[in-house]
Amino acid sequence: MIEITRKKDRQRLRRIALNAQGLLQAEPYGRGLAGARKAINHIGYVQIDTISVVERAHNHVLQSRVPSFKPEMTNQLLLKGDIFEYWAHAAAFLPIKDFRFSLPYKHAIKNGQTHWYKKRDQKLMNELLVRIRSEGPLRSRDLESGDSKRGGWWDWKPAKKALEQLYMEGDLMVCNREGFQKVYDLTERVLPSDINTQVPSIEEFAEHILEQQLRCHGLVSLKGLTYLRRNNELRKAMQALLDEKLSQKSLEQVKLSNGEVFLLESGAFERRLPRVNNRMVILSPFDNTVIQRDRLKALFEYDYQIECYVPEAKRRYGYFSLPLLYRDEFIGRMDCKAHRKEHYLEIKSLHWEEHNFDEDEAIKAFVKAIKPFSQFQNCDSVVLRKVYPKELEGSLRVALKSLE
User: Fold this and answer.
1) Would strands 251-255 and 2-3 be described as parallel, antiparallel, or unpaired?
2) Is the predicted pLDDT of residue 79 greater than 90, yes or no?
3) How far apart are CA 206 and CA 61, in angstroms?
4) Reported pTM
5) Do 125 and 165 touch, CB atoms closer than 8 A?
6) What are the pLDDT digits (tens) for 164-194?
7) CATH of domain 115-191
């Protein structure tokens, strides 16, 4: 086991993690639609979230890694059959090549081993399947009472639950999104014919997760590998797989000074990595790099919590603060809101951590990053409200004037 005691060794681990996530280089996956396809295939999923004070999480995650990415490209990938929508540790878009690994959860719900809704209305579910089979794709809004175009009167809440149950059990897939509204169709009509639909064994599932997580995170822990997967059999299979890989010496362990242990491919710690430059990346709170908060704190010493679920009086940083990654450190967070009708991005508060970095260079990097970020929100100007610490406010305001 490698003991990580020196600062430069911890920095190396951080760079391994950031490089695996595609955050050290400006164009690790290419640009536009092709770059987005390559990015999601590499990082394994992008989380979907409904909050829209800035561009939604799934689009933000891709924009952080793919120059020239536009929000409509996510749905283009869905329509082309490059990705599909389902549940990972949360609602997500996933590479279509990984479809078979969604089947264990679907089968567990269908067989009653786990529950989506505690009580399911099988009669209503069957009626919905018949309707979709005969009439074509369906939105939940099509079930609202009084919709004479789509077959008369429906009790919306039970029908919507039945629709979601069919989706979670795998009988339906999301074939399109109109705005943010899901459109459902029969799986047999949505899934490309060449996709493997063989249910993986628990050992195959564990192998898939380990390969994916090593690819997109660089270093992993048992807790991280089974993050929010409440499946004891999977945890046992994962532990057995890790023990086997360690005994074969295809994996090695590193231990941080705080006691946290991570695993990485043997020899990965010594490999040459891309150099870091004075680049800042504005990340989503649901970004793959930061979503595992304990890992983030252990590896980057960055204590982060999204506060939209915290009562306003108890918030420290704001409703929806975005992590700021500079070089290979998280140096702050920005609470902001896109005023799309008025075309300006409001930075409600900008908090910078105490770090040993060149403040002037970091400010330049922030201004360089905020321009494409605000354009991504369909905003053409930036308004700064509050800065912490206050002594940076003057320099930041002067620097932001270059965007006017």
Assistant:
1) parallel
2) yes
3) 25
4) 0.92
5) yes
6) 999 999 999 999 998 888 999 999 999 999 9
7) 1.10.10.10
Task: Provide the pLDDT confidence category of residue 154 given band limits of 50, 70 and 90.
Answer: low
Angle 17-22-25 (CA atoms, 0-180°, nearest 5)? 110
The residues pairing with 183 across neighbouring beta strands, listed in sequence order, are: 139, 176
DSSP 152: B
Q: What is the tally of helices (H) and strands (E) in the chain? A: 14, 14
Read off the pLDDT of residues 11-29 as tens digits, 9 standing for 90 and up: 999 999 999 999 999 899 9
Nearest CA to 195 among 67, 81, 104?
A: 81
**For residue 57, what are its two tokens?**
């999480």
Looking at residue 186, what is its pLDDT?
A: 98
In angstroms, the CA 17 to CA 89 distance is 20
CA distance 366 to 400: 9
Encode pLDDT of 181-233 as tens digits: 899 999 999 999 999 999 999 999 999 999 999 999 999 998 889 887 778 89
Residues 6 or more apart from 115 whose CB is under 8 A from it? 109
Tokens of 128: 């919905």
Domain ranges for the chain: 115-191, 305-403
Pull the structure tokens for residue 93. Answer: 């878009």
> What is the C-alpha separation between 251 and 273, in angstroms, rounded?
19
Tell me the torsion sign for CA atoms 58, 63, 65, 67: positive
The two tokens of residue 349 are 């508060």
Longest dimension (CA), the chain: 69
